[in-house]
Structure formats: structure tokens, C-alpha cells
Amino acid sequence: MKKTTSSFFKTPAIAYEGPQSANALAFKHYNPDEVVDGKTMAEHMRFSIAYWHAFRGVGADPFGPGTIVRPWESGKDPVAVALKRMDAAFEFFQKIRAPFWCFHDRDIAPEGKSLAESNKNLDKLVAHAKELQKATGVKLLWGTANLFGNPRFMCGAATNPDAHVFAYAAAQIKKALEVTQELGGENYVFWGGREGYETLLNTNLKREQDHLAAMLRMAADYAKEIGFKGQFLIEPKPKEPTTHQYDFDCATCIGFLRTYGLEKIFKFNIETNHATLAGHTFQHEIEVAAAAGMLGSIDANTGNLLLGWDTDQFNTDVKELTLAMVSILKAGGLGTGGFNFDAKLRRPSIDAEDLFHAHIGGMDAYALAFKIARKILAEGKFEQFVKDRYASFDTGFGKDIEKKKTNFRELEKIALKLGEPTPKSGKQEYLENLLNTYLHG
């Protein structure tokens, strides 16, 4: 990774010092230059920094205003401030040794008094980002449009009952696709932050879902028109801010996409915190997406299980991440996706140095989980157990069931002949203990 002149952070570039290091500002497990199976760890992990949390987050929550003040935020001209903020961001990307970044359109450029002015502001920041990407070697993992923050989107964007709002959202997506392509983005994400409803008393559910599908179809058509080759990703989320969102979880989105014939165009950007808000584990959502051939990328965060809302914390739970990495590796990886730190500092974490501590912890936890998962898969004990558990479907009438070569009459004859099945233990406790030998061995 190339270097530019630093000026915003006193913290030096983060180095790998190994598990025995006592340096809090060093990687213990993530060595981006380490080669594993012919690829560096940086290439395997494809870590990305979320611009909205790292450089637009101010420590605000539903109960109070921001607590975080950054020196680059001073100035009266919002575009000039945005340019300075971007300089700080790319300095951080280099120092934390992240190969990618992600953004919403309104993260990087201030919204103007009109759509035309907003587009003009965005063009200025995109030109600057292009220069910084070239100077630093940092790439764009994905871009997206903020279709939830402005009051115009209070009733949704694609699912808004007002066609004027729908048209405005379409124009914003069009521009976001163009700038994502301009910056070489490898993916484009759709997050329906308000694509849902508060009450069915004022909602035509089918019509809203039809409109959402129409928006996604038009986006795919426009991407093809301009030659955008990146992967389209949908990021499921069950609730907050709306009471019910149409992109509740991966299974819901798969059903939606298949209903409208969009399943070959989209994959999923899975967020840990959204998975748990939907009542699932992180690994469950990965497995559901992978089973449908739609696993695309990861938003690397977690939530506080004692709270019922989206806290977007940095994930350092190595057990949870190891299980996730096992499923990701079994699925063949993330392709053009990566691990984007859609996570924010806690409200009292106001020092610039805290940005480093947070990302070091997340990157180390994922890197350690990756290494443990590789060992688990290499030894094959869990996979062999699962294979043996389903062995009855590999031969005989079990194989006929899977090949659709039998029917109820034939299976009834078999059941009458064989009698009562013999119960077989699932050995969950044994397997949990086995997992601990990898985590703590």
C-alpha cells in the first residue's frame, strides 16, 4: 500500500507484532503480508472501513447528541470540510492497513438545496476520492445511496406511496451507481432503511413490494446500460427504524427476489447485528445465503444482546466469528465481497486513538477466527460427523429420496418392513466441547 503525507493522526501506522506483543496499538493476529494458500491475509480478509461510522459518527444515540469532535470538522464551507474529512479518512485507511473503504453518497458529500446541487457536491468529492485512491492504493469495496436519512424518505424510498419520492430515489440511485463505477467499486449495496411500514391501516403491502421490485429491476437495467460489472448486494434488516421491513432476513429476501425473478442478480451483504435482531445467529444467515448461492459480503459488527436495537459494535467474539468463518470458507469465500467494519465507537470513546483500538480489535478477531476455521476444516472432524449423520441418504432408499426416484407408496412399504427407527444422538455437547479445543487449544 502506498503512503501519503499524514497530518491528522498522531498514531503511527499499525504494525503486526504477534500474539505475545504488549503493544495495544499493534496487530496480534492480523498480519496483512502473511501468505496463506498463495494469498496474503489482506487478500483473504479484504477488510473495509465504513465511512459513515468512522468519519461521520459523532457518538449520538436516541437519547442524546454527539460527544465526538474531530479537528477536521471545522470550517464554514461544507464542501471544503468534506474534502478535509476525506483526507483524514484516507490517512486512517492507510495507517490501519485496510485495503478497502465503503460509503453512502451523503456520507462523503453534503446534500445541497436541490438534487442538482447535491450531485455537483458529490462530483467534487468523488474526484478527490479518485485521486486519493490512486495515491494510496485503497480501493472501493462498495457504494450505496442514503435513501433513509432525509425527511423526504420518512415513508420509504422505493416503497413510498408518493411517486415523486420514488422518482427522486431512482435519480439518487442512478447517480450513486455512476460514482461507484467511477471509483472502481466492486459491489453496490441496497439497504432498505425505511422500506417497510409502521401500520397496515395506511399501507398497500403488495403494491409497495411491487414498487420495490421495480426499483431493483431498473437499477439492474441501468447498471447494464452503463457497463457496471460490480455485484449487487442486498443487506437484510428486520426492524428499526420501521415496525416491519420487507428485507427482514435472508430467507425473506430470497423469497422476495425469487417472486420477482431477481434472484440471479442479487446476493447478500450480511450484518451480524441485523441477524441477531431477526432472532438468528450470524452463522445461520450466512448458511441460508450460501445454500441459495447468494452469499456476497459481510458487515462486520455485533449488537448488545441486552439491548433491542442496532448498536453496531465492533465484534471481538472469536467463537461467533470462528463459526461464521467456517461457513464462509465452506461456501468458497466472499468473491468480490469483504469484511466491512459497519461498527461505531461507543459514545464515551471520544479520542481519535479509539478509532485505532476499535479496528485493531475487530481485524485481529476476524484474522484469528479465519486461522482457527482453516484448522477446523483441514482436520475435518465436524464435517465428518455431519457426513456420517446424514449417511443414510447416500445409499439405498435414502438416495432415492434425494434423487426424487421414490414415492409415498414405496416409502410406506419400507417403513412397514423396517419397523421403528433407532434414535441416534446428535451429540451437541460433545461437538461444543470439541469446538472449545480449537478455540482454547
Descriptive keywords:
16 helices, 441 residues, eight-stranded parallel beta barrel, alpha/beta
Q: What would your notes on this structure say?
A:
With 441 residues, the chain is α/β, with parallel strands linked by helices. The chain contains 16 helices and 14 strands. The chain has helices at residues 41-45, 51-56, 78-95, 105-108, 115-136, 163-182, 205-226, 250-259, 272-277, 282-291, 318-330, 352-379, 381-389, 396-402, 408-418, 428-440, and strands spanning 15-16, 26-27, 35-36, 39-40, 47-50, 100-104, 139-144, 187-190, 196-197, 231-234, 244-245, 266-271, 295-299, 339-341. The strands form four sheets. It has an eight-stranded parallel β-barrel with strand order 5-6-7-8-10-12-13-14, surrounded by four helices. A two-stranded parallel ribbon has the order 1-2. Helix 6 (163-182) runs parallel beside helix 7 (205-226) and helix 11 (318-330) crosses helix 12 (352-379). It is globular, with a radius of gyration of 24 Å. The two termini are 34 Å apart.
SSE topology sketch:
Elements: E1 15-16, E2 26-27, E3 35-36, E4 39-40, H1 41-45, E5 47-50, H2 51-56, H3 78-95, E6 100-104, H4 105-108, H5 115-136, E7 139-144, H6 163-182, E8 187-190, E9 196-197, H7 205-226, E10 231-234, E11 244-245, H8 250-259, E12 266-271, H9 272-277, H10 282-291, E13 295-299, H11 318-330, E14 339-341, H12 352-379, H13 381-389, H14 396-402, H15 408-418, H16 428-440
Parallel strand pairs: 1-2, 5-6, 5-14, 6-7, 7-8, 8-10, 10-12, 12-13, 13-14
Antiparallel strand pairs: 3-4, 9-11
Helix pairs in contact: 3-5, 5-6, 6-7, 10-11, 11-12
